[in-house]
């Protein structure tokens, strides 16, 4: 399988996970399984294979920004980095869905957090924390 094929397949797989999160109100157990376990695990298999096969021969490292730039100049390592983002952003989205249900955050308030987490990872996580706090405050005020 080529790097380009792994990239395309993994992107489609991640989108399946995000779609499962959007269907969460109607199938919460399967949403949790698909987005919080199955899809990230499949992406992690590809990630691990790339790291095991190519990381040792790539130049660079994590000691400085220049070393990181050298490391990601390797296309297989760059793809592994992308897979890392796909898997972990989806795991954060799955946590947002579970935490939103647990804290009774209205699902329509969580959906924009999914979009932000998908597009800008930590920014979406931060947005969810704000939404969760606001929803909790609103619930406390109405009690």
Blueprint (SSEs and pairs):
Layout: H1 3-22, H2 28-54, H3 65-71, H4 75-102, H5 107-120, H6 122-142
Helix pairs in contact: 1-2, 1-4, 2-4, 4-5, 4-6, 5-6
Could you please describe the fold and organization of this structure?
The structure is a single chain. The protein has 143 residues and is mainly α. It has one domain (3-103). Helices cover 82% and strands 0% of the residues. The protein has helices spanning 3-22, 28-54, 65-71, 75-102, 107-120, 122-142. Helix 4 (75-102) runs parallel beside helix 6. It is globular, with a radius of gyration of 18 Å. The relative contact order is 0.12.
| SSE-based structural type | mainly alpha
**Topology order in helix (H) and strand (E) letters:** HHHHHH
In what range is the share of β-strand residues? under 5%
Share of residues in helices: over 70%
Nearest-integer average pLDDT = 95
> Gyration radius, to the nearest Å?
18 Å
Tags for this entry?
globular, 0% strand, mainly alpha, 6 helices, 143 residues, single chain
């Amino acid at each position: 399988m080529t790097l380009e094929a792994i990239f395309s397949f993994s992107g489609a797989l991640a989108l399946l996970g995000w779609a499962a999160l959007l269907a969460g109100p109607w199938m919460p157990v399967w949403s949790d399984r698909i987005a919080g376990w199955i899809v990230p695990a499949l992406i992690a298999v590809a990630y691990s294979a790339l790291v095991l096969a190519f990381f040792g021969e790539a130049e660079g490292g994590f000691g400085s920004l220049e070393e990181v730039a050298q490391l990601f100049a390797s296309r297989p390592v760059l793809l592994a980095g992308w897979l890392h983002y796909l898997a972990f952003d989806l795991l954060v989205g799955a946590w947002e869905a579970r935490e939103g249900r647990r804290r009774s955050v209205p699902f329509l308030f969580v959906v924009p957090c999914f979009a932000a987490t998908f597009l800008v990872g930590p920014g979406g996580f931060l947005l969810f924390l704000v939404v969760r706090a606001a929803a909790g405050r609103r619930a406390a005020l109405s009690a």
